[in-house]
Specification:
CATH architecture of the largest domain: Orthogonal Bundle
CATH superfamily of the largest domain: Fido-like domain
Oligomer: single chain
Mean pLDDT: 93
Low-confidence stretches: none
Distance between the termini: 34 Å
Helix content: 55-70%
Radius of gyration: 23 Å
Strand content: 5-15%
Number of helices: 15
Largest sheet: 3 strands, antiparallel
Number of strands: 5
Shape: elongated
Length: 387
């Protein structure tokens, strides 16, 4: 349905030239969403897919390990959309205090995303509502170092920003003027808190994402925080128990269409087209995540079977293997500390696991070697390839 312009333009002067800044109308859309049978069916399917994902992330063995890796995969993908070159392996190396193969600022941004999501989840679990105050706290962590540290972390913008182009005058989109950022945000927060009325959680997350990106309340990090908010909202509303939805996988693969739809909503009010796309993203991403979890569990079970028949060495090999499941890049010294067995025993287990093709040593060095559970990482890496 086309409702017309979803807000209004105001002409402002910036850099000595007139610019039209867009001020979005408050949510929910008017008139309300047109629930065709097709769109309703997509929403129902999206909820079913999220339910399967929630089950597998909660009840299957090693669910905490799956969560650990999902959060990092989403961090890598969301940061890639913003132009970073960091891979999942780079992030894992960085977390081991090893030197990654990309600029440190890139991997710091990804690491910040993990920390910001962890902070947001902790606050929600402690009873804090999803609010402007919480968003500022998450943003402060998201941009605490790396390139974003100059983007006033944790503070709503006090100057005009824009999207695309070299200046507001040739930008693709200019968000609300500075004096209207707070009023737009107050209305946005009311919507999150079901004022003036209740909005179902999945619909709320879909609508709120567009509104947040349209307000663009921070100087930097709006894209990452806007995507992060989707998962936080679904967790706050108990659609998901854990943040295992890496929606950026679909948005990265369909980036052009994603941006087109955000703009179309603003200009024409076709919220239904955006909601259809959003549901497809949720369905495909959830189903892929469930498939990934099953493949990871199958891989680890098959590899454990290979470790029987080594006599007394089997026990230590199983302990080393389990440590690699939890941290698929690791050093011998870290293993000794983690599982509490002698260095010689650890090194022998690593040698056996490498000879079986389960592990790979990735440095080529004689000292400070790093071992990779490479098939495990390959499964997780699917979809994170650089464009």
């Amino acid at each position: 349905m086309e409702r017309g312009l979803q807000g209004e333009y105001r002409t402002i002067s910036t850099k000595d030239e007139p610019v039209r800044a867009f001020i979005p109308a408050p949510l929910p859309p008017v008139p309300p969403i047109d629930w065709s049978a097709e769109l309703r069916g997509k929403f129902d399917q999206a909820l079913l897919s999220l339910g399967r994902l929630d089950s597998i992330s909660t009840f299957l063995p090693e669910a905490s390990i799956f969560l650990y890796m999902c959060v990092r995969k989403e961090a890598v993908l969301s940061s890639m959309i913003e132009g970073t070159q960091s891979s999942l392996s780079d992030l894992l190396l960085f977390e081991m205090d090893q030197v990654p193969g990309v600029p440190l600022d890139d991997v710091r941004e990804v690491s910040n995303y993990v920390a910001a999501l962890d902070f947001g989840m902790k606050q929600l679990s402690d009873g804090f509502p999803l609010s402007l105050r919480l968003m500022k706290g998450i943003h402060r962590i998201l941009l605490k170092d790396g390139r974003g540290k100059h983007g006033t972390p944790g503070e709503f913008r006090r100057s005009q920003n824009w999207i695309g182009g070299t200046r507001p005058g040739n930008a693709v989109f200019v968000p609300p003027p500075v004096d209207l950022v707070n009023p737009c945000l107050y209305a946005f927060e009311d919507f999150l808190h079901d004022k003036p009325g209740y909005t179902p959680p999945l619909l709320k997350a879909a609508l709120a994402h567009v509104q947040f990106e349209t307000i663009h309340p921070f100087l930097d990090g709006n894209g990452r925080l806007g995507r992060l908010l989707i998962t936080l909202m679904l967790c706050e509303q108990k659609i998901l128990q854990k943040p295992v939805l890496y929606l950026s996988l679909y948005l990265k693969a369909n980036r052009k269409r994603y941006y087109e739809l955000l703009n179309d909503v603003r200009l024409t009010g076709d919220w239904e087209a955006w909601l259809s796309f959003f549901c497809e993203a949720v369905i495909k991403t959830s189903d892929q995540a469930v498939d990934t979890a099953k493949r990871l569990f199958m891989l680890t079970d098959q590899d454990r079977e290979k470790l029987h028949g080594f006599g007394r060495a089997t026990a230590s090999m199983l302990k080393v293997h389990q440590a690699l499941v939890e941290r698929p890049l690791i050093t011998s010294a870290a293993l000794v500390k983690k599982i509490g067995i002698m260095p010689n025993t650890v090194n022998k287990a690593l040698s056996e696991l490498t000879s079986l093709g389960i592990l790979k040593e990735i440095t080529g060095k004689k000292r400070n070697r790093i071992y990779s559970y490479w098939k495990y990482i390959d499964i997780l890496n699917e979809g994170t390839e650089l464009p």
